[in-house]
Amino acid sequence: MQSPEDLQDKTVLFGVTGGIAAYKAVEVVSALRRRGAEVMVVMTDAASELVSPLTFQTISANPVYTDMFAEPKQWNVEHIELAQRADLFAVVPATANIIAKIACGIADDFLSTTWLAFTGPRIIAPAMNANMWDNPVTQRNLRCLTGLGCEVIEPDRGRLASGAEGRGRLPEPGVITEEISSALHGDCSLSGYRILVTAGPTREYFDPVRYLSNPSSGKMGYALARAARERGAGVHLVSGPTDLSAPRGVQLHRVTSAEEMLERCRRLWPQTDALFMCAAVCDYRPARHSEQKIKKDEGQLGEMVRTPDIVTTLSEESGKRFILGFAAETDEVAGTERAVDKMRRKGMDMIALNPVGEARGFGMDANRVVLIDDEGSESLPEMHKLPLARGIVDRVVRVLSV
Ligand code: PMT
Known about the structure:
The chain has helices at residues 22-34, 45-50, 53-60, 78-85, 96-104, 110-117, 130-134, 136-147, 173-185, 219-230, 258-268, 310-316, 332-345, 385-400; strands at 11-16, 38-43, 88-94, 122-126, 151-152, 156-159, 165-169, 194-199, 204-207, 210-212, 234-239, 251-254, 274-277, 284-286, 304-306, 322-329, 350-355, 366-373, 376-384. By secondary structure, it is α/β, with parallel strands linked by helices. Helix 1 links the parallel strand 1 and strand 2.
């Protein structure tokens, strides 16, 4: 999936410390730049032994800061100026040493001094030997940092530089980049809300090997789940079959058919405050499911019957809960009227009219919607599904906080 350019107006202060995984940080800086961020790299002496500052300077297209007492790159107090400019401070990889220092407020080099002067959101990606990670002192320092609001991207388990197996590997650069992007867009506006999101297609089986479905990839629904999570909501994602993995912090429930999706949603509905119904649920299913593969010469596949309407069923039990539905329409002009009709008929508070076609909406990385509710409509132009989902959640937050 192509990455969005969602960091256009963001500045990231990017600390690199002396772990062998420092080379992977080059790829994270490169990915942040591709997404539009300005990246200012600060390295410790040990990191500079492992990867040349020139590499980071070239990739970030900015000077690299290493030495408190070097000839200044500009005439101001550099570590203070950097700390004031940045939207987020990330340390990748973070060694046990830097974790201990920043947990104690030690400021004895450029990186730790800038960290102490920084007041915005912080995120670290520890990487080290498994015994160092498991050491109670390291764990105590990490608890201290998370207690102070620093986000920790937990290391992966696997083969470490020493050849041993254990926890301590730096996660893949793509995972770290997504976490930094989420931290840059996060706030607490949905904190305390529990949101049920549905995504992907359903599959309605005729026999063990044939089914009725549609080309929904789940990208839009997964992006919505991630955007809600970024705003602090507790998110349950009920998903039909897709190739996607759950966004971090989102609880994923995999289902196959419309009946299963309804059953899982009904189970979760009493514990949730809002529903984002993005799944492309099949409207029909085979009346008869054969346990054996149906033979070609048996003729027709049989009769079709309607599946349950999930959003209507949940809205009948919704009380005051908020429901956002979608309307996938191939004819946008007639579609607006149909979307409004769907919103009223199915008991939704807001509907996202989604123009779809052969190369539109379904399966694509980009999408556009018109959000409609009783107050009017707002058109969100074509963009990557992640910023689009953030835009949809923005409007929901505005409605919920009225
Ligand atoms: O998954 P992607 O590839 O990213 O594509 C995203 C998408 C195009 C699938 C998505 O943005 C979208 O438009 N989802 C809704 C698709 C759809 O089923 O629309 P509809 O107009 O047929 O249904 C209207 C509403 O009723 C929808 O909220 C739908 O989830 C719901 N519904 C439909 C049938 C059914 N049996 N139960 C339902 O709850």
